[in-house]
Amino acid sequence: MNLWFIFIPLIAAVIAQLVKLVIYGIKGQFAWQDLNSYGGMPSSHSALVVSLCALIGYFEGWESAAFAVALVLAVLTIRDAGGFRRTLGRHAQELNQIIHNLNPDEAAKYPHLKERLGHTPLEVFVGALIGLIVAVGYILLIT
């Protein structure tokens, strides 16, 4: 098994998370716990799966079964990050607003829900671009 198929996508995801921390820092919203957060610019999920997909396509072949599996995984992951989890974030916003409108004694019974769960299309695109750049950088480095 080629361990670079694991390490390079993980490096792409970490780079995306570090970029996210820098962006939050520029906005004055830096927090170390965001290193492992969902949502925001860029999508580390997209960076990870696009990097994996590009590596497998290049090294195993664009018509291989492994590339097909990686592509399906990438589509599913990106769709989930930009669709389903984004919808969950919107639901959390609505529920938090309902809780905020309750009287304080009643509202104290409910936790504040995390609202930043999914990604906008731009966040997904930038994450995918980071994943592609990291994979292509690795390919150019070793060939």
Counting structural domains, the number is 1
Shape: elongated
**Structural class determined from secondary elements:** mainly alpha
Strand content: under 5%
> Count of DSSP E strands?
0
Count of DSSP H/I helices: 5
| Main sheet properties | none
Q: Please state the average pLDDT score.
A: 87
Q: What radius of gyration results from the CA coordinates?
A: 18 Å
Helix content: over 70%
Low-pLDDT stretches are: none
Distance between the termini: 19 Å
Verbal overview:
The structure is a single chain. This protein has one domain. The protein contains 5 helices and no strands. The relative contact order is 0.19.
Provide the descriptors you would attach to this structure in a database record:
elongated; 5 helices; 143 residues; mainly alpha; 71% helix
Task: Record the SSE blueprint.
Layout: H1 4-26, H2 44-60, H3 65-100, H4 104-107, H5 121-142
Helix pairs in contact: 1-2, 1-5, 2-3, 2-5
Give a quick precis of the structure.
The chain is mainly α and 143 residues long. The chain has one domain. The protein has five helices and no strands.
